[in-house]
Amino acid sequence: MEAKKYYPTKRYIEFQKNAISNSEIFWEKEAEKIPWYKRWDKVLAWEEPFAKWFEGGLLNASYGCIDAHLNSWRKNKVAIYWEDEQGNTKSFSYVQLHREVNKFASALKKIGVVKGDIVVLYLPMIPELVFSMLATVRIGATHTVVFSGFSSQALADRINDTGAKVLITADFGIRREKYVPLKEIVDNALKLAPSVKKVVLIKRTEKEVNKESGRDLLYSELVKDAETYVEPEPVESTHPLYILYTSGTTGKPKGIVHSTGGYLVYNHSTYKWVFDISDESVYWCTADVGWVTGHSAIVYAPLLHGATIIIYEGAPDYPYLDRWWEIIEKYGVTIFYTSPTALRMFIRHGEDWIKKHDLRSLKILGSVGEPINPEVWEWYYKYIGNERCPIVDTWWQTETGGMMISPSPGLELVPLKPGSATLPLPGIDADVVDDSGNSVSHGTKGYLVIKKPWPGMLMGVYKDPVRYKETYWSKFKGMYYTADYAMKDEEGYFWMLGRADEILKVAGHRIGTAEIESAVVATPFAAEAAVVGKADAVKGEVIVLFVILKEDYKPDDDLKKNIINSIRTQIGPFAAPQEVYFVEKLPKTRSGKIMRRILKAIVHDKPIGDVTTLEDGASVDEIKTSYEEFKRMLKG
Ligand code: WTA
After folding, report:
1. Fewer CB within 10 Å, N- or C-terminus of the chain?
2. 562-595, pLDDT tens digit by residue?
3. pLDDT class for 242, splitting at 50, 70, 90?
């Protein structure tokens, strides 16, 4: 039997050709679809690698996400349904959301936040998180959301990089009925980050927490008598909407800066194409707002479209394994967006939990954050979508601001292939290249690059233009380097093959090996550390750590625990390694670089030839000898 062919449709090819060759006209038309106070003077000012999209234009994100809906029937529709593990619920119509955001914007103004300030948010998944983001940008300030799974040290590092004066937090976060002491973590962080002068405290629970007088202010007090309307501050299109820290290949996370105009235009358009989102959609993205997916897919894109969003605070399998399916049924979710890790966890528990629920409201299913294996894709398609809903496997990054490679059923549904993110979205000039930057032939693995600027792209790395240039624009001339491996098949479809740098994706969470290594060598007993990712059936990847102890220390379980604890307190529990090995030496090149390829081969119990990672500048013989030597050492 002849294999089935899945060529891109003619309509897709034509649309894409036009979008790429007339890209400024194309993006200008897209920009006209969101509200502006003043039209831009220029669609794109491009001084490689710095892009200014829609320069001269003025807009406000809070206006676009809320006020713009108030003169239509959407005024009284639900903007947010919130639910926690216990089934407690809250809902806010657009007019109510407007009120909450305005009151808090007025309060922030009163405590001295002005246009251009950076406000740090360290919050659980509660509605106030959305209010805080929109209130901040309403008055022209910029938010930096720090995922509430980060420890006080990691929080302090991020605050210090921004120099923020105001931080918004809650007393506790709740997960699996356990109280995560967010305020206590903040108190500890602020000992290391003295720039913060005011802390706004949201009471999520009744429990008492420490309150520092003069510094800590209760959210409930602040909004009680606040104004119910604050004029949105029109900001330049290139005004930073937010900074989001993400892991790179050094120990220091990068502050990815996103613009207001370009970012919003890009997300507005791509959510239409990929999810066919409209004001009738009930949209549920299960990510945490602390990651980029939550920024774009929970807050900005759905609210710009006047959709209803679901915010769920809690673990996917708690208290029961059908918690998520129950929520889809209860609210009639039409678009569901989640990660392969979550799906793999559910697959292990069988379909009975799903069959208890009526999931017929679903129309489109999305996947993000890591490669989705074909078997998981098929399962998602069959058991969640009942073979009716297209799966959109969306490839993108914190840096890209929005989805880049994905099926786009809202525009033109190309034939799907389980496991492939399919084709670049309109206007995205993606390619796979070799070490010299030349396109590779189909079936060959290479580096994924983007050859043209796009409106959602990062404006830079906060306060570090050199790092921005070096990380993304120096490997290949004139191309954005994604640091992902990819392959194009015979029909031009893209297959994502994981990171080409030292960044891991653990349960979809992005974490740099260098960050973990520096947390380990910060302990008094570790001399050297090396971290690699090991393939895992559920989490995609888990962390394996190799440690060389200082001379006076002997390996034992207490030291192991100590090291793991140090990672937890310096980064956060999600960065804890699954396996720790004490070794006497690490395989290194003559120039002293760790040969991770060897470590990877060993943790996967594979011969060295099968494991590809970045070239480590070592000769084949050198690698082979080290590999054998290291393996013997581990076994012995
Ligand atoms: C990976 C998350 C395969 C990729 C939005 C990328 C994916 C990194 C996919 C960015 C996908 C994201 N298929 N891999 N559909 N989506 N990735 O910044 O390695 O947390 O570079 O952004 O996740 O992770 P980040």
Report:
1. N
2. 999 999 999 999 999 999 999 988 888 777 888 8
3. very high
Query: Which residue is closest in CA terms to ligand 1's atom 25?
Result: 397
Tell me, in angstroms, the distance from the centre of ligand 1 to residue 504's CA.
10
Average pLDDT, integer, range 58-78: 98
Alpha carbon nearest to ligand 1 atom 12, residue:
369
Q: Indicate which residue's Cα is closest to atom 10 of ligand 1.
A: 397
- Using alpha carbons, select from 469, 44, 14, 80 the residue that is nearest to residue 265: 44
Q: What is the 3-state secondary structure (H, E, C) of 351-417?
A: CHHHHCCCCCCCCEEEEECCCCCHHHHHHHHHHHCCCCCCEEEEECCCCCCCCCECCECCCECCCCC
Identity at 619, one-letter amino acid code: S
pLDDT over 50 at 211, yes or no: yes
> Smallest Cα–Cα separation from 333: which of 277, 410, 287?
277
Of 616 and 296, the structure prediction assigns the larger pLDDT to 296
- Calculate how far, in angstroms, residue 294's C-alpha sits from the geometric centre of ligand 1: 13
Q: What's the CA-to-centroid distance between 205 and ligand 1, angstroms? A: 34
Report the C-alpha gap between 160 and 153 in whole angstroms.
10
Angle between helices 152-162 and 182-192 (to 10 degrees): 50
Among candidate residues 606, 623, 461, 454, the one with its CA nearest the CA of residue 534: 606
Interatomic CA distance for residues 20 and 184, integer angstroms: 50
Burial 230-249 (b: 16+ CB within 10 A, else e): bebbbbbbbbbbbbbbbbbb
CATH number of 507-635: 3.30.300.30
The model's confidence at residue 292, banded by pLDDT at 50, 70 and 90, is very high
CA of 615 to the centre of ligand 1 (A): 22
Percent of the chain with pLDDT over 90: 90
Asked whether the whole model's pTM tops 0.70, one would answer yes
pLDDT at 53 over 90: yes
User: Whole-number mean pLDDT of the chain?
Assistant: 95
CA-CA distance, 101 to 4, in Å (whole number)?
52
Closest ligand 1 atom to Cα of 499: 19
Percent of the chain with pLDDT over 70: 97
Closest residue by Cα to atom 3, ligand 1, is: 371
Domain spans in the chain, listed from the N-terminal domain onward: 10-315+394-487, 507-635
**What gap in Å lies between CA 526 and CA 548, rounded to an integer?**
6
C-alpha 370 – ligand 1 centre gap (Å): 5
Residues in the chain: 636
Give distance in angstroms: CA of 484 to centre of ligand 1.
9
Which CATH code of 3.20.20.70, 3.30.565.10, 3.90.120.10, 3.40.50.12780 fits the domain covering 10-315+394-487? 3.40.50.12780
**Closest ligand 1 atom number to CA of residue 421:** 15
Which residues have C-beta atoms less than 6 Å from ligand 1?
246, 291-293, 368-371, 393-398, 421, 482, 484, 496, 499, 505, 510
